């Protein structure tokens, strides 16, 4: 059991080191706001990161909170979502 734990810890350390060396500066990594994180995660399910960056920034300009999004017109939301 100790061997498995040691291997797990080693693997975790390797992943964290790799991330530290190669992480990208992405707008959703600058927040702890659950709404912004959720929007980025859903967008990232559908398209590649470089395209999501532009869409995410625009989305947050238009609807910076879940309340803003809830009050938005459906047609506007769908128009902005297109292309993802």
Output the number of helix runs: 5
Unreliable residue runs: none
The gyration radius over C-alpha positions equals 18 Å
Mean pLDDT: 93
β-sheet strand percentage: under 5%
Largest sheet: none
**N- to C-terminal distance:** 45 Å
Structure description:
The chain has 84 residues and is an all-alpha fold. The protein is elongated, with a radius of gyration of 18 Å. The N and C termini lie far apart (45 Å).
Secondary structure layout:
Blueprint: H1 2-22, H2 34-46, H3 49-62, H4 66-70, H5 74-81
Quick overview of this protein structure:
The chain has 84 residues and is mostly helical. The protein has five helices and no strands.
Primary descriptors:
mainly alpha, 84 residues
